[in-house]
Amino acid sequence: MELNIYIELLKNKNLKVTQHRLEILRFLDKNRTHPSLEQVYSYIKEKFPSISKMTVYNVIDSLIENKIINSMRFVNSTELHVDFEIDTHFHFVCSKCGHIYDIDSELDLEKILKNGGHKADDYNVNIYGVCKKCLKK
Amino acid sequence: MELNIYIELLKNKNLKVTQHRLEILRFLDKNRTHPSLEQVYSYIKEKFPSISKMTVYNVIDSLIENKIINSMRFVNSTELHVDFEIDTHFHFVCSKCGHIYDIDSELDLEKILKNGGHKADDYNVNIYGVCKKCLKK
DNA sequence: TCTTATATTGTAATTGTTACAACTTGGAGC
DNA sequence: GCTCCAAGTTGTAACAATTACAATATAAGA
Ligand SMILES: [Mn+2]
Ligand SMILES: [Mn+2]
Ligand SMILES: [Zn+2]
Ligand SMILES: [Zn+2]
Q1: Which of A28, A67, B115, B129 could potentially form a cystine with A120 if both were Cys, beta carbons 3.0 to 4.6 Å apart?
Q2: Which of B107, B119, B125 sits opposite A129 (nearest CB)?
Q3: Which residues of B touch A103 (CB under 8 A)?
Q4: What is the mean pLDDT of each run of 10 residues along chain B (137 residues)?
Q5: CB contact under 8 A, B122 and A101
Q6: A116, B130 in Cβ contact below 8 A?
Q7: Rounded to an integer, what distance in angstroms lies between the CA atom of residue A117 and that of residue B136?
Q8: DSSP reduced 3-state for B55
Q9: Which CATH number fits domain A90-136: 3.90.950.10, 3.30.420.10, 3.30.70.360, 3.30.1490.190?
């Protein structure tokens, strides 16, 4: 059963395996649209009508903190967005349709931070513009 | 008089030259620390004690919209930050001291978006980690 | 100086996030 | 399985960032 994937992700980080965490992980895995917390909450509420929004915040926090998922903010949005994909990639945000595209690319941090002395853990690259689809209209 | 620089920036975009806009521009030019709106408001209130926070939002909005200044959000902060510098560069955010460093680098958008069909206007690169100074402690 | 489009203001509403304390539950050890 | 406790969940309330809006004031062109 595929749920085992998520169970392992959690166990590897010594996180308790709860129904909420499993369902949120599954949702994020199947929906790679970079949903906001509100969107995660809307979805999860259908499965667990009595779930608290605080639980969504808590679950997401623990997943981010343990690097099981990624998070990002965009200039034009006031809320945190999350991404099941943790491997390095960029994002393209369309100002017309709002869609957030994955862009397969990565930074050469070594080169960029050359002799600057800073130690990087992570990064986000957000590109803003008009997407292919919207350009065709 | 140096204020002329800011007056021209505004006139070139057909924006009215107001004391508030001038003072906010001067503040951002002299303080390249990527302040949040709250920080801009705190400062400007000393010069214009009766200024409304809404004016700060309006001024900043108009400056961003007209590409006179830049704006960005960081995953660990809930508020918009602004930057007088509009030329392309990256940012490094220290998780210890919170300082936001400018990193002199740029993306090769052509290469990154190759045949993807999207049209980019702008981008933000945020790198997270521990800065030089904090590493020395 | 007059006029008008634009900017400012204050207030209130909305939205996103955090704090906290009481209650519940997963899973380790028996 | 049963017991126990650390970790997770819940609800509520506070707080913070942002937006909406309508009334008033002002910059700048005629
Ligand atoms: Mn992604
Ligand atoms: Mn900068
Ligand atoms: Zn689009
Ligand atoms: Zn630091």
Answers
A1: B129
A2: B119
A3: 112-113, 116
A4: 87 97 97 98 96 97 98 97 97 96 97 92 97 94
A5: no
A6: no
A7: 10
A8: helix
A9: 3.30.1490.190
Domain boundaries for CATH 3.30.1490.190 within chain B: 90-136
pLDDT of residue B1: 58
Task: Kindly report the number of other CB atoms within 10 A of residue A66's CB atom.
Answer: 14
d(CA A19, CA B47): 54
pLDDT confidence of residue B41: 98
Q: Which fold has domain B3-83?
A: Arc Repressor Mutant, subunit A (1.10.10)
CA distance A2 to chain B (A): 31
